[in-house]
Design a protein that fits this description.
alpha+beta; Heat Shock Protein 90; 5-stranded mixed beta sheet; 7 helices; disordered C terminus
Length: 354
């Protein structure tokens, strides 16, 4: 059973005074001194007065402020962040308690205002991006079909051109530009309308090996070595093999493009706590520190032929797997991208530690 603090404070004082009065009464009666009875009555009355004074002081100075504070805390719990303690101007511990309470409410009110502004901005941005995504997807779909017809006509025209014709150089340029437009449209459609991952327990070593094999086909004519270091004890990872392969292939091709002349790329698999980790390290030119905060933003690119969607798509796929991608880079020495994926889809609510 809860005992109010007021009783806890008053009862000991009252008990001490009562015991003193009883002892005084017993001593007086046992000594048989009738004239002491008046003194006894005065002492008993004084004890009662002292108890009453202590009670009033406790009620006025402590009970009322605490009752008010309890009421204000209840209002704060219901969402009212305008409450204040009226006893905060007192120059004692209770006043200090009131000032601390008011300061806490002020900080809470400011934090809520900031959170509300961020939420509204995020909602507005999300709606804006959703509208742009639908518009971009529609335009990409409408452009891709006639572009396929143009590409077919260009191929036919190229077959009719003699090998010695100077127009063949122009034909090759047009063909490359059409292919570039097709890549941009494909990336744009994939970004605007992503396919949900199909999770399967599979060997992440095999997924990485397939991505490395595809990347090696791209560097047959270059002095770039791609090395795969598997994790032999790696347990099966629940993932969409096609999407993770796409992520790794994108990281590998970016690494290839970052290497001028001879160089090396290493793909290493490992496990850390509940996550499988794949790192892609290259010896390329590195990334300018001013670009690092923006490399995962859609359409941000430092390459003249890039779409600026590859890393953004990679990050989205990683997040759909409850994972993450982080990067470290040293200009002139190379970069390292680290992909983390939880072993089990059951840990979707726990994102990778960044």
């Amino acid at each position: 059973m809860r005992i109010r603090w007021l009783l806890k404070a008053v009862l000991p004082v009252a008990a001490v005074l009562l015991c003193g009065v009883l002892v005084f009464l017993w001593v007086t009666l046992s000594l048989g001194v009738p004239e002491r009875r008046g003194i006894l009555l005065v002492a008993a009355g004084g004890g009662v007065v002292i108890c009453a004074v202590v009670l009033v002081v406790l009620v006025v100075l402590i009970q009322r402020p605490l009752a008010e504070l309890q009421k204000k805390i209840g209002q704060l719990r219901e969402g009212d962040v305008t409450v204040t303690a009226s006893f905060a101007d007192r120059n004692d511990e209770i006043g200090e308690l009131g000032r601390n309470f008011n300061e806490m409410v002020r900080q809470l009110r400011e934090s809520r205002e900031i959170t509300d502004r961020i939420y509204q901005a995020d909602m507005s941005r999300a709606e804006h991006l959703a509208t742009l995504g639908e518009l971009a997807a529609g335009l990409a779909h409408e452009i891709r079909n006639p572009l396929a017809g143009i590409a077919g006509v260009i191929e036919l025209l190229g077959k009719d051109l003699p090998e010695s014709s100077p127009s063949r150089d122009i034909w090759k340029d047009v063909r490359q530009e059409i292919q570039q437009i097709q890549r941009i449209l494909n990336d744009l459609l994939e970004y605007a309308r992503p396919r949900p991952p199909q999770f399967r327990l599979a060997d992440l070593n095999a997924t990485a090996e397939q991505a490395v094999h595809l990347a090696q086909q791209q560097v047959l004519t270059r002095q770039v070595k791609i090395e795969l270091v598997k994790a032999d004890a790696l347990p099966p990872v629940e993932h969409d093999a096609a999407q993770i392969q796409q992520v790794l292939l994108n990281l590998l091709l970016n690494a290839v493009q970052a290497i001028e002349g001879a160089g090396a790329i290493q793909v290493r698999l490992d496990s850390r706590e509940r996550f499988a980790v794949v790192s892609v390290t290259d010896t390329g030119r590195g990334i300018d520190p001013s670009h690092l905060p923006n490399i995962f933003r859609p359409f941000f690119t430092t390459k003249g032929t890039g779409t600026g969607l590859g890393l953004s798509l990679a990050q989205r796929i990683a997040e759909s797997h409850a994972g993450s991608i982080e990067v470290s880079s040293t200009p002139g020495k190379g970069s390292c991208f680290t992909l983390r994926i939880p072993f089990q889809k059951a840990t979707t609510g726990e994102t990778a530690h960044r």
